[in-house]
Structure formats: C-alpha cells, structure tokens
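=== RUN LOG ===
request id: a7f3
mode: sequence -> structure
chains: 1
length: 353
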Amino acid sequence: MEFLAEYGAFLLKAVTIVVAILVVIGGVVSISMRNRRSDDGELVVKKLNDELDNHKEDLEYALYSKEELKALEKDKKKEDKAKEKAEKKRLKDGLEATDKRKRVYVLDFDGDIQASQVELMRQEITAVLTMATAEDEVVVRLESGGGMVHSYGLGASQLKRIRDHGIPLTVCVDKVAASGGYMMACLANRIVAAPFAIIGSIGVVAQLPNFNRLLKKHDVDYELFTAGEYKRTVTMFGHNSEKAKDKFQSDLEDTHELFKHHVKQSRPGVDIEAVATGDIWYGQQALDHSLIDEVGTSDDYLVTACANSDVYSVRYEHKKSLQEKLGLAVQKGAEGAFTRLLTLLNKQQQTKG
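=== RESULT ===
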C-alpha cells in the first residue's frame, strides 16, 4: 500500500509537470501566432463533381451485378465517344467549344459570437476573385446565430466584395442565419434556406451584470476616470445613472437603425418595419416575409449545380508547425471553451417560443 501511495504521488507530480510544460508551450504559441503573416496558409480546393461521381460509383458497385456494371461502362464509353465526336465537329465548323462550363465556388462560414472565421473567409474570397467571372457563381454555406456587430459587419463587407465584382452570390442556410448571420446573408443575390432554418432576428441586444451594490455592501469603492462625457456609459462595477443608461439605449437604437437600413438596401422588397422587431422565422415563414428567396437545402442546391457546372469547394487553412500542433490545443482550449459557451448562450436565444 505504501508503494502505491508513493507511486500515486509520483504520478501526480509527473502530470503536474507535463501540464505546466504544455501551458508554457501554449503561451509561446500564442505569442508566435500574433506575429503570423497573413499568407502563412494554403488554399484547399476540391471538385465536388468528382466527389458526387465517386459516391455514385460506390453505390453502383454495391448494388449492380457484374453484367450490369459492364453494360453501364459500355454505355458510358459510347456516350463519351459521341461527345468527343460532336466537339470535334463543332471546332471544325468554327464554332466555340461547349466544354467551357460555368464555375461555382463554394465557401463555408460557421460563425461564432466573434465571427472568427471572417479571417479565413477574406483569404478565400480574395483567391476566388482572381478567377471568377460574371458568368460564374459563389455559394456561401452560412451558419450563424450572430454576435459582435463590428465582426459581422466585416463579414458582410467581405461578401459585398463579391457583389461589387458583378459575380452572382448565393447564400445557403441549413440551420440558422440570425442577427449578424442575417446581416451577412441578406447581401446575397439569392438566399436559400432549409424548411426549419431560423432566419431573421433583425435587432440589437446588449446585457451585462452590475456588481455595484455588492461592492458597496463589502465597503469596496470603485473609481472610474474618463475624459469625455460619453467615453464610458454603463459599467459592471460602478453606479449607472439614468443619463448613462439612456445614452447606452440610444446607441443601441442607432445601431438598430443602421442594421435596418442595411437590410432594406440589400433586399428592397422587405417590409423592414414588420420584420425588424428582433423576431425570427422558419424557412417558409421567412419566404413569406421576403427574407429569403427559396426553401431548400444546400445539398440539393449544389447537387443540381453539379449537373450543369463545375463546382469547387474552396477553403483556406493555416499551416501548423510542430510547435503549434503541440501547443495549440492548450492555447485554444480555454479560448475555444469560452467562445463556445458565449455562442451557445447566443444560440439559445434564437428559439421560437
């Protein structure tokens, strides 16, 4: 028993040392990440047509007999040969080739309360704009319950870059595009939302606890020094005067007006006073309010696009060194947990009572 106790104590010390080392590595990684260059990453491009074809072939091999597979392969060869022959004839007759198909670029945005993925999306959009033309299309699969105004404002500005280049923009929402998420989505030429996707929440909210009475109860003074009448309005620790509260409320209402103007400008057909109440709607309800253009899933939209277009998934990924791979979990663990908690609390507000 004494041996087990000593071994347990040794094991506890060893674990403590390992955790301490990981924390130090995480701190070093955090510092190095701050100095990371914006081009320290790579673009990952996948052709979704090929993935769809591979899925189909896998099912064919599982479901069809050898004779049926041979017949399918023979028919495919005949079809390919006929297409090749027709293409040669077109070129011989001086006509343009028919293999110049429309390209569809697919981006994914899964927004937390800080809209963290905007940093990756701006790289993806910059890359796509070097190749895309007005005959192509950009599809953004967007999921977000909203968050910080300035962060989602930047996200909306990134999507506006696509519109400004004259490239058709479609946003597909399978689960939720509310508040800041809808601020981004409404910039699209076309919004497609699943039947039970949550849409809307065109409003502004701010909340914070106030510990002033608790501090007074324990004889703790809180001093706040500012230069400028409205440098700070409401605080968590000091007394909030009615004037400060009124100013804070006025700022929220100004932000709400900007949000309403943004939506109205992007979707002129919307009755903005009817929808800018902070309420949310499901897919069909959102269609009735002109908040979206079509009810459907991103899967169906992209499968249909694959029939007539070359569809590419575009994703920007940061390169990770060995140091980062070892320490990133420590550094991002606490940040991620806190961000996920805030995002979860935010999503819980996006419910239809």
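=== NOTES ===
The two ends are 59 Å apart (CA to CA).
The first strand starts at residue 41 and ends at 47.
=== END ===
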